[in-house]
Write a structure and sequence with these properties.
Blueprint (H helix, E strand, L loop, with lengths): L3 H15 L3 H21 L5 H24 L3 H15 L8 H13 L5 H12 L5 H13 L2
Helix pairs in contact: 1-2, 2-3, 3-4, 5-6, 5-7, 6-7
């Protein structure tokens, strides 16, 4: 049985086809193909967590591509990449802000986790798909040093 998020993606693809929205059809078809590849790679049905991982990676690729396009003076292509990133964002949980992440880090520190590695190990599953790992690492280091 497919994960609820996969069903939402398939329904969105069908809606885009009915609306003849080529950009959304292309993006969602590509995303569902990535999910099929992920299912084959895992050897099992994908869960919502697996789908979040695929969507997060796809968004990150598009953001990086937009930066490269902009650096190369291709503003129209950068705007398209950013638009695709935003379309994918609609399927992800609400992103967390820095204050929420700091509160989680402080909560974990109160539980006695006082080193970067173990703290990141406990924090990242809580943030997956909702906050950038590099930024989380920066916050953890700041909280541990008291900066």
């Amino acid at each position: 049985m497919p994960a609820p998020l996969q069903v939402r993606l398939e329904e969105a693809l069908n809606d885009a086809r009915r609306a003849r929205d080529r950009a959304r059809v292309s993006l969602l078809s590509m995303t569902l193909a990535e999910l099929r590849n992920r299912r084959i790679e895992l050897g099992r049905e994908v869960s919502d967590e697996d789908i979040h991982e695929v969507l997060t990676r796809a968004r990150k690729r598009r953001k990086e591509a937009a930066e490269q396009m902009r650096a190369g003076g291709r503003e129209e292509l950068a705007a398209r990449e950013e638009a695709e990133s935003e379309m994918l964002a609609a399927f992800l949980p609400e992103p967390m802000d820095e204050a929420e992440v700091r509160a989680l880090v402080r909560g974990l520190r109160e539980e006695g986790v006082a080193e970067t590695g173990p703290l990141m190990g406990r924090l990242m599953p809580l943030l997956r798909g909702r906050f950038d790992g590099r930024e989380a690492n920066r916050i953890v280091r700041e909280e541990l040093t008291g900066a």
